[in-house]
Amino acid sequence: MRHSTCLASDRFDPALELSTFLGQLSDEGGIVSFVGVARPTTRGGSPVERLFLDHHPRLTGRSLEEVAGAAGDRFDVSALRVVHRFGEVAPGEAIVFVAAASAHRRAAFEAADYVMDRLKTDAVFWKREDAVDGSHWIEPTDSDRAERARWSE
Amino acid sequence: MRHSTCLASDRFDPALELSTFLGQLSDEGGIVSFVGVARPTTRGGSPVERLFLDHHPRLTGRSLEEVAGAAGDRFDVSALRVVHRFGEVAPGEAIVFVAAASAHRRAAFEAADYVMDRLKTDAVFWKREDAVDGSHWIEPTDSDRAERARWSE
Amino acid sequence: MKILFFGRLGDMVGRETHVEVPPETRTVADLRQLLAQLHPAASEDLSRPSLRACVNDLIVGENYVVADSETVEFFPPLSGG
Amino acid sequence: MKILFFGRLGDMVGRETHVEVPPETRTVADLRQLLAQLHPAASEDLSRPSLRACVNDLIVGENYVVADSETVEFFPPLSGG
Lengths: 153, 153, 81, 81
Fold this sequence. Notes:
The complex is a heterotetramer, with 2 copies of chain A (about 150 residues) and 2 copies of chain C (about 80 residues).
Chain A: E1 2-8, H1 14-23, E2 30-37, E3 48-55, H2 59-74, E4 79-85, E5 87-89, E6 94-102, H3 105-122, E7 125-131, E8 134-138, H4 142-149
Parallel strand pairs in A: 1-4
Antiparallel strand pairs in A: 2-6, 3-5, 3-7, 4-6, 7-8
Helix pairs in contact in A: 2-3, 3-4
Chain C: E1 2-5, H1 7-13, E2 16-18, H2 28-38, H3 43-47, E3 52-55, E4 58-60, E5 71-75
């Protein structure tokens, strides 16, 4: 299984990522991708000015690699790509891109789903939402933890 | 829920489809897409020269609409796009593109997954694989039927 | 009467054909028999229960009485997308 | 000793700080107490069990003995991606 990860300091184009990913495939029949976009409002409904993703100089990239590698071990996928922003992200910008390719579409769906669930809890980030009515640091929600737990043996 | 479907006579660029889809969103957080690519070999391993998707002038488009609409009724998605080729498709070309957007990534994953499972059995197509060692018409596999059955009440 | 064939039958018999229908050929079942006589090589495919007849974009049963002005379409099992 | 703070604590205390460590401050637990005295506004955050200490890219326990030459990093709970 080929996999590659990228910890991106600047905005990226998810469609270009998909295009590049598709261009590297050979005989895979199904490709599932996920794009996560920074929301324009907080849960409370206030406009968000920016998201700040604090990261660790080594452990953050390593956590992306670990999740991508685990997905490759677990599912019958032939290629996997993970791109994740760090630093300041404006509302509407892509935060995360995940793509998985497989001869079997079920494996591609499950791998992308798994990577997202793992990233939501295990990626080494500390997120701060800067809204017009103040800033606050975010922790994983119970729903994130429940999604993560779906994949536990 | 906005949805749109396209029955495409010519090759299309899945990355461009994703780009257009992303450009039309407002505050959805998660976008799942699926790309199905024509395989270069038959199940038996012979090189495929082309895939021919025979279609019905009205019922095929209607079947795409029906599946997209059902996905919108069933899952909490705000936008859905389905593109499907008909006629002759060369190996390596995209046959199908599905994208689903939602505030909740679980709903986006499920909607894209559901649309693919439905299309694989219920889309009005008759597929012929023209390989170097002959042509044959394809019927849904048991595995396709099993995937479809996952969504039955 | 205009008849359309899709999928494998379209390759065997032609996608579109016109047949002169004698008065005793009234139902879809009768029409299958007539077509099987006209196309002996496709008679097995034409008699399969999995082959469905469609008139005005609706699947019809074997006892459906076909009017001469109608187009009858024959669908082998769908392959899906 | 070089100390790095991430997440909320980074905003409160500064992302990087250097402290003079007296001889009686030996373990991570001792270091937390010292930092809480230096930064009273952050003392509650510094005493939380969910705040983990990390040395050489490995999470260490409260009894880990910190060498003066090491960098200690403090991680609040991850928010995930």
